[in-house]
Design goal:
Layout (H helix, E strand, L loop, with lengths): L5 E5 L4 H10 L5 E6 L12 E6 L7 H6 L4 E4 L17 H17 L7 E7 L22 H18 L4 E7 L2 E2 L11 H10 L4 E3 L6 E2 L2 E2 H13 L1 H4 L2 E4 L6 E2 H16 L6 E3 L19 H7 L7 H14 L1
Parallel strand pairs: 1-2, 1-4, 2-3, 4-5, 5-6, 6-11, 7-10, 8-13
Antiparallel strand pairs: 9-12
Organism: Saccharopolyspora shandongensis
Pfam family, one: Epimerase
Protein name: dTDP-4-keto-6-deoxyhexose 4-ketoreductase
Length: 322
């Protein structure tokens, strides 16, 4: 990259976008944080920082936001639909945000050297698969609307990379959690259950607790995105699985959460119970996901630094005192 390259974070006020913005703030770069709201410079920021407010679905807004960028992190996304967590097939706003923005980005982004795009994918994009650890070589059969949109966006970036228009890298993430950002809460399963435990409510599972998930602390996830930018030439044109490399039964995770909250509040741990699944549950909710992040680790030297129990403890304290 040239001296003082322009690095653009789209969706910089979101949970993961704000963490990546903070991770970039100590770099010798021009850092542009783009969001619908004003974004303050992270604490200790030494980068040349600019906050830009924009609705990226408006005509021309994206092109202006990324003009001159050497690297772009597109975190703007529509995760929840009008009826709740799941996105409906006909949700045009979600399609425009999750796919249309990436398609436009591949069209408008240009520069010398070829710009880098590090895309946040999901390890559930693969859909139904045979038992065993995922390593990124599996055939993708996404089942839900959100996962299909993520896969479509990822393929757009791969095609643009093959055409030489950009250097696209997709990091397929597990559930990411951690202390809330100043501009966004973590609304994933770990923080949701911590909030329930703080309210004295039981922690409910849609299964018997043996379903496993690889859960990643947000600071480790942010470092992975920066590492991908730093190794763009070696990584471009592919997707990589990110995670701790060790999945945990959700029953054990929920009991860790109950214990962490109990230590902070001085009360008994709330119960962890199984309940019937809701109507909007789908197949991915009832299959374990084990990921092998070794390909990305070998290419970049990145590794998870925060043990699960410590990350849960940190998050519980932050939510209890925030």
């Amino acid at each position: 990259m040239p001296d003082k390259p322009l690095v653009v974070v789209l969706g910089a006020s979101g949970f993961l976008g704000s963490a990546v913005t903070a991770a970039l703030a100590g770099r010798p770069v021009r850092l542009r944080a783009v969001a619908r709201r004003e974004v303050a410079a992270p604490a200790g920021c030494t980068a040349d920082f600019e906050s830009r407010q924009a609705d990226l679905t408006e005509p021309g807004a994206l092109a202006e936001a990324v003009e001159g960028a050497a690297a772009v992190f597109p975190f703007a996304a529509q995760i929840r639909g009008a009826s709740g967590w799941r996105i409906a097939e006909d949700d045009v706003v979600a399609e425009r945000t999750n796919v249309g923005v990436i398609r436009e980005l591949a069209e408008v982004l240009h520069g010398d050297p070829v710009p880098v795009v590090v895309f946040p994918g999901s390890n559930t994009q693969v859909g139904k698969h045979v038992e065993g650890r995922l390593d990124g070589t599996e055939e993708d059969r996404p089942e839900g609307t959100y996962d299909r949109q993520k896969l479509t966006a990822e393929r757009i970036l791969k095609e643009a990379t093959a055409a030489g228009r950009l250097r696209g890298i997709s990091l397929r993430l597990p559930p990411v959690f951690g202390p809330p950002a100043a501009t966004a809460d973590d609304r994933g399963v770990v923080s949701t259950m911590i909030r329930r435990a703080l309210a004295g409510e039981p922690l409910t599972m849609w299964h018997d607790g043996t379903i496993r998930r690889d859960l990643l602390n947000v600071s480790d996830a942010a470092r992975a995105f920066v590492a991908a930018m730093d190794h763009a030439d070696a990584l471009a044109g592919r997707h990589y699985l990110i995670g701790t490399g060790k999945s945990e039964p959700l029953g054990d995770v929920f009991r860790l959460i109950a214990g962490a909250v109990a230590r902070h509040t001085g009360t008994d741990p709330v119960p962890v119970v199984s309940v019937p699944p809701p109507p909007h549950a789908d197949g991915t909710d009832f299959r374990s996901v084990d990921v092998d992040p070794s390909a990305f680790a070998a290419a970049t030297g990145w590794q998870c630094e925060t043990p699960l129990a410590a990350a849960i403890e940190q998050t519980a304290v932050a939510l209890a005192t925030g």
